[in-house]
Amino acid sequence: MRIRLVTVVWGQEYIDTFIRTGLRSLLGEGNIPDLASAHEVVYTIYTTHRDAETLKQAPAFARLRESADICLSLFDPGEIDTTNYGEHGTFWWRGMDLARRNGEVLFFIIPDLLYASGTLVRWAQRFVEGKRAIFTIGPQVVLETVVPELEKRFPGDERPYDLDRDQLLDLLCRHLHPLHAAMRHDERRRPSHPEYDVRLVPRRGMVIREIVSHPFCVQPSFYSALKHYGPEDHLDTLMFEPCSTVSVEPILKRVHGYYRPWPLDEIRLSNLAGWWDCFTTAACERESRYPFELARQEDEEWRAARARAVAAGGFYRSQVVAAGKLYRLFIALRTHGCFRAANILAAAVYAGRLRRRIGVRRRAIILAPTDEALSGPDGGKVRALLQPGREREFLDLISDHILLGKDEIGCSRRLKRLIGQSPARPADEEELVTARGLPAGPLLDFAQSAGEPIGVGPFTIYPVDKVVWREAAEARAAAKRSRAATSSQRPSEMPMSTSPPDPRTVGGTFVVTRWARKSIFHRMLFYALHIPFVEPFIALLFPFYFKVPIKNRLRPYRIVHRARNAVRLLNGRPSTFGLAACVRSSVVGGPARSALHSLRSARRLAQPHVALAQRVVRLIQRDGLRLALRKIRTRTIGSSSLRDAVTWLTVSPAEHEKLRQIRKYRALKAVEAVLADCETRMGSRPFRSVPLVYLRQLLAQHKIDGTHGSKAVRALLVKLVEQHPNWAEPWLELGFMYEDEGADAEALRCFEHAMRGKRAADLAPSDPHPGVVAAANRGRLLMAMGRQDEALAAFAHAIGQDPGQKVAAAQYACLLRQKGNIDNALVYYGEGMHHQECRWCLPPAPRDAGDMDFQYLAGEAPAELPERSASVPAFAHAQLTAERS
Could you tell me if residue 439 is left (phi over 0), alpha (psi between -120 and 50 degrees) or otherwise beta? Predict the structure, then answer.
């Protein structure tokens, strides 16, 4: 078997990490040397000229060259943005293209990954057995603590790291990275990119479910579609391997994601839909069903706790996937101009928790009323259902617009239960039912089609001319039956109220009526002509054709209908070979061609401006003029306020450095809180956190451990706000500090000062404004305290200054709905569907936490502080998590 290994690495720090960790583990037993002896292996390393020289001088690299065919593919640093680690994807796609052309299996060798012994050989064996892509997990461990331990255990520069899976698991449990420790479902500091769902089993281990990822190995030539390096078809060829790799990362990696408390509640879980849609693939959706078990001790206690963790993780996964599919439906409705229906769907997601009521596994039909239908009396009735206390009626209305077929009923226990409880049964097994389990026949006759159907994943959207009310539809159906009985006509002979959709325009999507179904004779004739006369020629042109399932191959092609229509149009045109036509073409042909060329050039030049104008018009139609103008200003100048864009606060570099040291200290305290909580919950010596010991020693070395550091930080912040009362950043950090200590009154006061302050130019203009972050945090605190009017004002300030505050927009919409302002609530529910968490940013941290400097904090003596109010639990409203524990 031909295998291509691909590594992308540049920069002195990453080259050093690769040489000290990943490279030495690749030389272990059952990895590259044994893989190269059993298969034809080519190892391609994409790097720069300078880094290639560093690699060649490493003893471990010389030993690697003796084991396999190494190809150094050099690139110039100017080709990519070397400060963006995501640029490695450019070279991964190059390796993917090479492997596809050469018929090779591609292994992504990540430079900072530790591989257990036998990992690569076992993965290759899976391809021999018939698998075509391998997924697994690579939990992170802390670089600053795990590398010294490995180098002490395996002395020398070229000795391989021979670690079996149990030893690697021991390293993971003792050196678990705070980023992945924060991905626990019950962690208050949830990160902004939660690709893992971690469930701890105290004293035994953990269960990890990966929500989004990419394959570690793939055969690109086998698949017809790849997204984010993952397959989109032939999902039965995927293999999910037990964890045998760990990723070595600095302790402060992505600390800004969990710098502030951000627990998982209903609003944040629904807001994850946009994040899931951005990063997921069909393979990720399949992988997220598979729980990865990491057990140090397997006994009855482990098995019982594991079963609970797997069930809870499966429920969380189903909620994220359901929210993501509803988000795709929301985007499709907006794209096709159904803005009001999209906002009502967003309100159902947030106000009615629609993702718990709708679990579409296969396919469904959505009846979407147009904006014209929702702007009339029907729209007023729908908005009346959005009043607090009428959530069940509102969800029943939404459920009546979702139609499900027989295959969906067969795989849903909830639908079977609803149909069993329903007093009315479907007329036959083929009849559609609504998401409430009631017959959908009367509803289909009630509404008229108002546009072409829209396919969105498992959904087919049919725009209709009115809101479907079940009572009115059933009354109309009963009246029709009574008239039919009076006139002695059978109901089955009555004509349909709507014309059937054309199956050629639907293109294989789920169709409402039976008119689109082909007769048996028609299908037999099609198959008899298609298989012997068409398929051999297609197979010659496309070698992978027979890998497509036969049910997809034997289907009428849309291109056939297009070609038939084109021939019909050509036959209707008059002949152009007459004498008069030749004379006309010779006289006016040249000027006409010149004019046509000029028109095409003008159209090409004007096309970007026309597209921009169309986007602006659609933005105004969707969000209204005021919100659209705020978004345009924010995207253009970085702020919706012209005053903030042109006025900056002048602060000395020394004071900037003081604030940076405060943020770095607060980041270390956030890491300490996450690691300490994880260690406490595990409650066993094998799970004692080595990074936690390292972190506390680092703080003690700078004399800012314990209460000394917090007192020094508070004293320094008080001095900064006294010297610069209009500087927003110190007020915000001081408010964060009081909030963490439970002093809500002082936190609200500091947030109010930050809202009115100015920012200093120490962060990028694209980063969120400190006043906006302060306003959003003030609104959440006031919302938890029950002070809704003040919370409304704070959220309005945050969204008015920065429309990108999407979580704040959803919380603002909830308050507007409680106050009865339904129209504005619908607008901001729609804004809250997008995932854009604007958290407070931090300055870049060094790769090694030991290089951090705290001279200002260490030299600051504790100062007398103003008295604080009585402590109350912060974010008491967020104690209800969005899932079952």
Answer: beta
pLDDT tens-digit series, residues 565-610: 666 666 655 544 455 555 555 555 667 667 777 777 787 777 777 7
CB 9 within 8 A of CB 43: no
Task: For each of the domains in the chain, give its residue range(s) and CATH number, in order of start.
Answer: 1-130 (no CATH), 336-489 (2.30.180), 520-561 (no CATH)
Q: Which two tokens stand for residue 782?
A: 């006031």
- Of 332, 207, 354, the residue nearest 270 (C-alpha): 354
Q: How far is residue 713 from each of residues 445, 662, 664, 759, 842, measured CA to CA in Å?
A: 69, 6, 11, 20, 16
Instruction: Report pTM.
Output: 0.79
State both tokens at 843.
Answer: 């300055």
The DSSP call for residue 18 is I
Region 775-793 average pLDDT: 93
Quickly count: other Cβ atoms within 10 Å of residue 293's Cβ: 16
Query: Is the distance from CB of 871 to CB of 743 less than 8 angstroms?
Result: yes
Structure tokens at 180: 């992945």
Q: Using one digit for the tens of pLDDT, what is the confidence trace for 658-715?
A: 999 999 999 999 999 999 999 999 987 888 999 999 999 999 998 888 888 888 999 9
Count of alpha carbons within 13 angstroms of residue 124, beta-carbon side: 21
Extract the tokens encoding 287: 């992988």
Q: Coil, strand or helix: which one is 459?
A: strand
User: Which residues, in sequence order, are bridge partners of residue 199?
Assistant: 207
Separation of CA 506 from chain center = 29
Between CA 354 and CA 345 the distance in angstroms is 9
**Tens digits of residue pLDDT in 42-56:** 999 999 999 999 999
* CA–CA distance, 669 with 462 (Å, rounded to integer): 53
Query: Roughly how many angstroms between the first and final C-alpha of the chain, as a whole number?
Result: 46
Q: Which long-range contacts (CB under 8 A, 24 or more apart) does 687-691 make?
A: 687/173, 687/174, 687/203, 687/296, 688/174, 689/174, 689/175, 689/176, 690/142, 690/145, 690/146, 690/149, 690/174, 690/175, 691/142, 691/144, 691/145, 691/175, 691/176, 691/177, 691/178, 691/251
The CA distance from 859 to 696, in Å, is 19
Q: Could you tell me the pLDDT band of residue 543, with boundaries at 50, 70 and 90?
A: low
Using CA atoms, how far apart are residues 516 and 522, in angstroms rounded to an integer? Answer: 12
Q: How far apart are CA 26 and CA 35, in angstroms?
A: 10
Rounded to whole angstroms, the Cα distance separating 302 from 285 reads 27
Q: Which residue carries 């471990």 as its tokens? A: 60
pLDDT tens digit sequence for 393-444: 998 899 888 888 766 554 555 545 545 545 444 444 446 788 887 888 888 8
- Which helix H or strand E contains 133, and what residues bound it? strand 133-135
Largest CA distance in the chain: 103
**What pLDDT is stored for residue 129 in this prediction?**
94
Structure tokens at 155: 């002395």
Nearest Cα neighbor of 253 from 855, 846, 876 is: 846
Q: Which long-range contacts (CB under 8 A, 24 or more apart) does 714-719 make?
A: 714/863, 714/865, 715/860, 715/861, 715/862, 715/863, 715/865, 716/658, 716/662, 716/856, 716/857, 716/860, 717/662, 718/863, 718/865, 719/863
DSSP annotation string for 460-499: EEEEESS---HHHHHHHHHHHHHHHHHTT--GGGSPPSSP
Report the residue count for the chain. 885
Distance CA 740, CA 243 (A): 36
Q: Sign of the CA dihedral 563, 569, 574, 576?
A: negative
Helix axes 788-801, 770-784, angle to 10 degrees: 160
Residue pair 120/32 in contact (Cβ under 8 Å)? The answer is yes
